[in-house]
């Protein structure tokens, strides 16, 4: 029989044009569509605008060296934000990443201090991160504890572990060549942390868009019950998702340790909130199921740019916190506005 | 089409005084609507409906699910704004703004799904928002309780007014709702399928109440799709079909078969499903399935190429049975066999691995990923089929092609896999859910209310797919539906559930709405009504 249930679907009810000015009508319409469909594009625009403004304000800002410096400063938060994006896409949150960063850094440091070498140190850090992440996944997926609570608990456990194994004293004896991770430059120009970050973003993007793990990550965040009912082993995938977060925190920990030349049990405090800020500024929905990994990179770069730029301009550090907080709230407001305009 | 009475709205002959026992026809109708239309997304839910009810009259509004009955009621109560048409009360034009305003206009509505505050007592619910107050402004609980007791006595409910509503059975809650409408002292009482959760005894009690309301000179609009009730209480009947009032007739002058053909717009078609040929191997056998307090030793078997309906009242355990079989809820006892093998189903993934598919009751809650594309939704259970590079990745191109293929085959509109599933109509969304399981090559489908809340065209499509799936693909379907005409039309066998047990089984050839309902509510056949029940082809 003929299909009669497809009423001629009217176009999405458009919100009345806000700006009726001549320029507004010409440019606002198409621009608005691009923003609505892709908040990452909008945030990239903001980042460029920030760079432009800062380069006008200070001659020291827009130099190759300073721009690379920004990417290095952004690297640690950007790396954590990869795993955090996986977690937030699955409608979860990972508050333990800062502590896991410290745990992984001191684990690597202790292994290297004991003379097991560079590779063993790095492997130990990654294993440590994966283990804490998997434990988060088990608490959430198997025991049914809400992500906020489970990872809040793990934050304490991981931090405590880092302090216990080091007795609270930083580990200064590291393996030969470890400093390359955080301080090295390829061809004397491109910083190694920048390259590692980029490479992991590409890998993360491929995983999210081209593998079952990625598709299920979005699906779990979009509708946990529907995903379970579709036969997906949600428990297993939650463990993997939180392990990814633990591993990227561990990589960040290695880079941080390499940059400062020691394994610090007290490092990474507050990084969980910075990483969440980066993800949210990138437009990934805290409700899960919607977002884009590269947007988190842009989010991390915006934070780093703001800090760097305000430093270059000589703005007092306390004011930087105000600025970053304001950007976060503005970004979430933008996301709400975007959803409303799309009739969600 | 059964010919003669495609009557204009509110056919004039029905207005003749003989149809009105109270002989008040000279007076203005208590409530009249004329030319009411309402469109949703361009589809007419109501199309120029005329309708009136007099004081001292019971006017039954009859129609299948989706015919527009509830929409009309919601317009009268001010929940929906109408697109066109006028409403008169005692000859005066009125404009109901919202349910509260409708109440002040003298319209009181007893809803099918009630909106009671479960954690409050009966008394608190009865007078919610209009509590009798003491002079200094606190609630006069003593008065509330006394008034509640009187109201409950009127509907024959012997519960203490302080009982919390959540402790009541569904039928008792329904009686509370009726009591509440009575306390409003409305001149126009609208009842939306009030008997769907009631037992025979409670139904009898309700009909007594209706008769006394009628004797008081109240006007009663009684919405139903149960034909046997027409003969018992109606003075006049208006049949709604696809949003039109196709006929208004005096109840005394109409035969039930004729009402049915008016309702469905054709002579009752029981032949949607061709007969099954020969014995078929069993594909699913469930024995002794129990879940504490919910399911009690349920067993059934399902065969290749068969559509088995699971009927029963809402809350009888049908959905819970489906969830238990599919591994959504834990079970205390019972065995499940798929194609002769005893299987363990601890979670939905196990069920999917054994070839089961589950179209749940609520596609928004447990069926679809509303933030994602049509294609991603359709391939969710079958993503593994598109594995590439040894399972490391999946192939975008093959996924998209497969999604496109099924979306077209199921007539999903628009046929674009990239389209966000949120932007589709209800019927199309439901087809996407079906596509999920067809792509996963499930051969046992559990469909829970698969056509609820979708329009007539999509419903036909879903029915067509079911027939195709069972008869051509040799799949098996377990159909849960509260839509009795659908159950009768679409199933080979009918199991009726009541209170977590299988109350009985009916073969296609001897199933009637009456028999199914009697098993569902645990009543004995009513002589008069049973005789009047028509037998289709």
Can you characterise this structure?
- The complex is a heterodimer of chains A (344) and B (537).
- Chain A is mainly alpha-helical and 344 residues long.
- Chain A has a domain at 74-292.
- Chain A has helices spanning 22-37, 39-57, 64-89, 97-113, 118-141, 147-166, 179-183, 192-210, 212-222, 224-229, 234-260, 271-281, 293-312, 317-341; strands at 185-186, 190-191.
- A six-stranded mixed sheet of chain B has the order 6-7-8-3-9-10, sandwiched between helices.
- In chain B, α14 (426-439) packs parallel to α15 (456-472).
- By secondary structure, chain B is α/β, with parallel strands linked by helices.
- The model of chain B is unreliable at 1-26, 267-271 and 524-537 (pLDDT under 50).
- Chain B is built from 18 helices and 22 strands.
- The two termini of chain B are 15 Å apart.
- In chain B, a hairpin with a 2-residue loop joins β21 and β22 (501-507).
- The interface between A and B is large, with 36 and 50 residues.
Give the topology, please.
The complex is a heterodimer of chains A (344) and B (537).
Chain A: H1 22-37, H2 39-57, H3 64-89, H4 97-113, H5 118-141, H6 147-166, H7 179-183, E1 185-186, E2 190-191, H8 192-210, H9 212-222, H10 224-229, H11 234-260, H12 271-281, H13 293-312, H14 317-341
Antiparallel strand pairs in A: 1-2
Chain B: E1 31-40, E2 43-53, E3 58-62, H1 69-76, E4 84-89, E5 92-94, H2 99-104, E6 107-110, H3 122-126, H4 141-155, H5 170-183, E7 188-192, H6 200-215, E8 219-224, H7 227-233, E9 236-241, E10 244-250, H8 256-264, E11 282-291, E12 295-303, E13 307-312, H9 318-326, E14 333-338, E15 341-343, H10 348-353, E16 356-359, H11 363-366, H12 374-379, E17 387-388, E18 393-394, H13 396-409, H14 426-439, E19 444-448, H15 456-472, E20 476-480, H16 484-490, E21 493-498, E22 501-507, H17 513-521, H18 527-532
Parallel strand pairs in B: 3-8, 3-9, 6-7, 7-8, 13-20, 13-21, 16-19, 19-20
Antiparallel strand pairs in B: 1-2, 1-4, 4-5, 9-10, 11-12, 11-14, 14-15, 17-18, 21-22
């Amino acid at each position: 029989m003929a299909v009669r249930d497809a009423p001629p679907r009217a176009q999405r009810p458009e919100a009345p044009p806000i700006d009726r000015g001549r320029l507004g009508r010409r440019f606002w319409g198409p621009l608005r569509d691009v923003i609505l469909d892709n908040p990452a594009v909008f945030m990239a625009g903001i980042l460029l605008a920030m760079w432009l403004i800062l380069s006008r304000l200070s001659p020291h800002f827009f130099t190759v060296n300073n721009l690379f410096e920004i990417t290095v400063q952004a690297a640690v938060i950007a790396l954590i934000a990869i795993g955090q994006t996986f977690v937030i896409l699955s409608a979860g949150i990972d508050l333990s990443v800062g502590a896991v960063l410290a745990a992984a850094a001191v684990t690597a440091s202790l292994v290297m201090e004991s003379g097991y070498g560079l590779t063993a140190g790095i492997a130990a850090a990654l294993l440590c991160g994966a283990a804490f992440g998997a434990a988060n996944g088990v608490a959430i997926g198997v025991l049914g504890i809400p992500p906020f609570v489970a990872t809040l608990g793990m934050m304490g456990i991981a931090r405590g572990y880092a302090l216990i194994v080091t007795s609270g004293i930083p580990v200064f004896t590291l393996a030969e060549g470890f400093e390359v991770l955080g301080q090295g430059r390829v061809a004397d120009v491109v910083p190694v942390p920048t390259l590692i970050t980029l490479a992991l973003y590409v890998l993360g993007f491929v995983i999210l868009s081209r593998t079952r793990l990625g598709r299920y990550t979005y699906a779990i965040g979009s509708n946990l019950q529907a995903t379970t009912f579709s036969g997906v082993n949600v428990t297993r995938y939650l463990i993997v998702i939180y392990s990814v977060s633990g591993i990227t925190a561990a990589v960040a920990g290695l880079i941080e340790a390499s940059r400062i030349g020691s394994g610090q049990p007290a490092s990474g405090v507050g990084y969980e909130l910075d990483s969440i800020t980066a993800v949210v500024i990138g437009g990934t929905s805290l409700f899960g199921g919607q977002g884009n990994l590269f947007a988190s990179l842009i989010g991390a770069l915006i934070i780093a740019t703001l800090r760097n730029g305000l430093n270059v301009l000589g703005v007092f550090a306390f004011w930087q916190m105000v600025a970053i907080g304001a950007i976060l709230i503005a970004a979430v407001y933008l996301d709400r506005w975007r959803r409303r305009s799309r009739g969600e | 089409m059964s010919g003669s009475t495609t009557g204009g709205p509110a056919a004039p002959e029905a207005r003749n005084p003989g149809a009105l026992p109270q002989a008040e026809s000279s007076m203005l109708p208590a409530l009249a609507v004329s030319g009411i239309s309402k469109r949703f997304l361009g589809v007419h839910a109501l199309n120029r409906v005329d309708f009136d009810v007099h004081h001292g009259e019971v006017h039954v509004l009859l129609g299948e699910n989706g015919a527009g009955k509830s929409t009309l009621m919601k317009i009268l109560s001010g929940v929906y704004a109408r697109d066109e048409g006028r409403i008169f009360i005692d000859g005066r034009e009125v404009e109901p703004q919202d349910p509260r305003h409708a109440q002040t206009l003298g319209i009181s509505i007893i809803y099918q799904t009630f909106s009671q505050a479960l954690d409050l007592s009966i008394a608190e619910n009865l007078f919610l928002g209009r509590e009798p107050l003491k002079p200094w402004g606190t609630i006069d609980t003593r008065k509330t309780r006394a008034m509640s007791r009187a109201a409950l006595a009127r509907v024959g409910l012997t519960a203490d007014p302080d009982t919390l509503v959540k402790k009541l059975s569904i039928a008792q809650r329904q009686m509370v709702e009726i009591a509440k409408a009575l306390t409003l002292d409305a001149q126009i009482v609208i009842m939306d399928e009030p008997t769907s959760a009631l037992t025979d005894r409670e139904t009898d009690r309700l009909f007594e109440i209706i008769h006394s309301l009628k004797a008081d000179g109240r006007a009663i609009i009684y919405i139903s799709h149960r034909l046997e009730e027409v003969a018992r209480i109606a003075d006049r009947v208006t049949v709604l079909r696809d949003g039109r009032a196709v006929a208004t007739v005096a109840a005394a002058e109409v035969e039930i078969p004729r009402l049915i053909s008016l309702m469905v717009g054709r002579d009752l078609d029981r032949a949607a499903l061709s007969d099954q040929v020969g014995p078929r191997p069993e594909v699913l056998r469930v024995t002794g399935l129990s879940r504490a307090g919910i399911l009690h030793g349920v067993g059934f078997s399902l065969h290749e190429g068969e559509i088995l309906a699971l009927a029963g009242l809402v809350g009888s355990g049908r959905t819970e049975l489906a969830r238990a079989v599919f591994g959504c809820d834990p079970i205390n006892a019972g065995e499940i066999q798929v194609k002769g093998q005893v299987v363990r189903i601890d979670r939905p993934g196990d069920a999917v691995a054994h070839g089961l598919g589950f179209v749940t009751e609520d596609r928004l809650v447990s069926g679809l990923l509303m933030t994602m594309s049509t294609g991603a939704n359709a391939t969710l259970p079958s993503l593994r089929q598109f594995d590439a590079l040894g399972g490391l990745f999946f192939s975008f191109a093959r996924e998209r092609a497969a999604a496109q293929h099924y979306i077209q085959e199921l007539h999903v509109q628009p046929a674009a896999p990239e389209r966000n599933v949120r932007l589709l109509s209800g019927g199309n969304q439901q087809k996407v859910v079906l596509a999920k399981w067809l792509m996963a090559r499930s051969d046992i489908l559990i469909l829970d209310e698969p056509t609820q809340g979708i329009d007539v065209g999509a419903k036909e499509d879903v029915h067509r797919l079911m027939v195709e799936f069972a008869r051509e693909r040799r799949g098996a379907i377990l159909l849960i539906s509260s839509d009795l005409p659908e159950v009768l039309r679409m199933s080979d066998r009918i199991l009726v559930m009541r209170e977590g047990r299988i109350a009985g089984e009916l073969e296609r050839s001897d199933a009637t709405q009456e028999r199914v309902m009697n098993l569902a509510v645990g009543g004995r056949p009513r002589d008069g009504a049973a005789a009047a029940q028509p037998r289709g082809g």
